[in-house]
Amino acid sequence: MRRAAVLTDFGDSDMFAISDLPMPRLRHSDEVLVRVAATSVNPIEWKIRQGLGLPKWLWRRLIGSPMILGQDFAGVVLEAGPEAAGFKAGDAVMGVQPIAGSYTTHLTARTRGRRAAITHTPAGVSSGDAAVVPFAGLVAYAGLVVHGALREGNSRVLVVGASGGVGHLAVQIAANGLGAEVIGVSSSRNEAFVTGLGARTVAPYDRIAKSEYPQHFPGWEHSFDLILDCVGDDSYYTESAPWLLKDSGRYVTIALPSFQPGRPGEDVGPRDGAVLVAQLARRYATKRYRLVPGLVGLPAREGLPKLARWLAEGKVVPRVASMYRLDEIAAAHRESEAGRTVGKIAVHMPDSP
Question: Are the beta carbons of 35 and 19 closer than 8 angstroms?
């Protein structure tokens, strides 16, 4: 038997039930069975728990039954299929589940093809550190490299939300992995943390308003190659990007813009959805705006090995802000929902190896 945090229905964090379930079996020749040591909580997961973003019936179909949320995992391979090339029993691994499924002690993962999202955990990296990197790290990598077109070399990047789960990894990937000059936007209380990650300087949003950037930072005018918005503050696109970005610069966000009518999910009908699509299409037509998809299309095959290498080299060091047990998953969700986490939230499994 395996143990899992099962979502019994959409709603508050008390909708989780810790349940014993049958062990998963390998269904494909390239799969591995993983004994999970740790997972993490990403904001997308409590949004799914609330039934936001898509109709609830569609979430149920995508997640399957029983409903087990969670993207990230780190653990040890217990069994490898005959075509799981490069993986064997005993290997320490880290990865991302498609859509959901990692709030459990055991899971299966594909190792080949477009659904492959697993790599070896570098020696010396703890399961807690490994578990908080894959999903947020891939979102950051996609925003910087795939959609932001950032390459190694002399570039200037503004990371909005630089102390959060995606943001603190994005700062390190850009500065330490790709050699860019990074400016972070965070609260003043997190300024030292963000500069310690590799940011050249920090614009504290609680002390300097965006409208005051020309006064305080006159050298920033038309000097940025990329703005990566990790919080979904659309005003950075509408108000700041025209002054900050070079003519060839890009604005990339990991969240839908705040001009979306109504609330996300079932409260947004076909008409509002059509308006949103039209507005996004107009922005994409400028070739300066990009949106990172949260659950599909992440560059796992390209990005995960690079994230693992940067972990091994010490260029990316995740900040684990809090650590919970699986039976404390509701409390972990409540902390994430509060929106004050500096770094990531890890969840350890019972009897973790």
Answer: no
